[in-house]
Write a structure and sequence with these properties.
This protein has about 250 residues and is an alpha/beta fold. Helix content is about 50%, strand content about 10%. It has helices spanning about 1-10, 25-35, 75-85, 95-105, 120-125, 140-150, 160-165, 180-190, 195-205, 210-250; strands at about 20, 40, 60-65, 85-90, 110-115, 130-135, 155, 170-175.
């Protein structure tokens, strides 16, 4: 791995432009490569992920995630158990058996669904009280998909979540990575009536049209700069040839 890290560092100077999917990732690029980045948030299909006005939120909270250690889903399970609220977990992964045992030991109201298709996940987004994200994500698509469906997100106040969740408006940001802090946020969310329209308007800013416009602008600007650099290099080379020719004149 050390030689890959050296290669990565040594070739970084050949990159014309870095494009990051969040300010959080841009900070890592700055630390590792000492380079700035252009931020272009990923696109969310806000035409597909949309509210269902006839539905009122149900009592359950929702996790949609790979069941991997860094996701810290044990915190979500313990927090919902402490708050005495049902939790639905969508996803599969190496942590599934351990998380199922944990839920069983807590006698918590936890349902594991495995992976579902997009339409089934959208249905759960529309019905849930809120989605819960306990891990640190570079950006995090799930909170934005849920917000596009008009439902709030409860997320750790680190990583991309601080850029996609408006604390107190489109969800709740949890400042402490602990079961007690998430349980308190879950209880808080259960007692609130979030403004579905405000949540939806916020999510629309992450739509596909915005992404296409911003990414196209980055490409156009980068190509323009590259052409300018080539043109400047050509002019510099021509001036060098002209100077050499004059020096060779008798």
């Amino acid at each position: 791995m050390a030689h890959l890290a050296r290669w990565d560092r040594d070739t970084a100077g050949r990159v014309d432009r870095y494009v990051a999917n969040s300010h959080y990732v841009a900070g890592r690029i700055r630390r590792y490569y000492n380079r700035g980045s252009t931020i272009v948030y990923p696109p969310v299909d806000t035409a597909f992920y949309r509210p269902e006005p006839a539905r009122r939120p149900e009592s359950f909270f929702l996790v949609v995630s790979a069941l991997a250690p860094y996701k810290r889903l044990d915190v979500a399970i313990r927090a919902c158990a402490a708050a005495r609220t049902p939790l639905m977990v969508v996803g599969r992964g190496p942590e599934e058996a351990r998380l199922r045992r944990l839920a069983g030991s807590l006698a918590a109201d936890i349902t594991f669904t495995g992976w579902l298709d997009d339409a089934e996940i959208r249905d759960l987004y529309q019905r849930c009280r809120a989605v819960v994200m306990t891990g640190v994500e570079d950006f995090g698509m799930v909170p934005v998909e849920a917000q596009a469906c008009g439902r709030p997100a409860i997320a750790l106040a680190e990583g991309g979540a601080v850029e996609s969740v408006v604390d107190g408006v489109t969800g709740l940001l949890v400042r402490e990575h602990s079961v007690d802090a998430f349980a308190a946020a879950i209880c808080d969310a259960a007692s609130r009536d979030f403004d579905v329209s405000a949540i939806r308007r916020h999510a629309e800013a992450f739509g596909r049209a915005r992404f296409q416009d911003e990414f196209r602008a980055v490409i156009d600007e980068t190509v323009g700069e590259s052409r300018s650099d080539v043109s400047n290099a050509a002019r510099h080379a021509q001036r060098g040839r002209n100077r050499a020719a004059r020096e060779d004149e008798p």
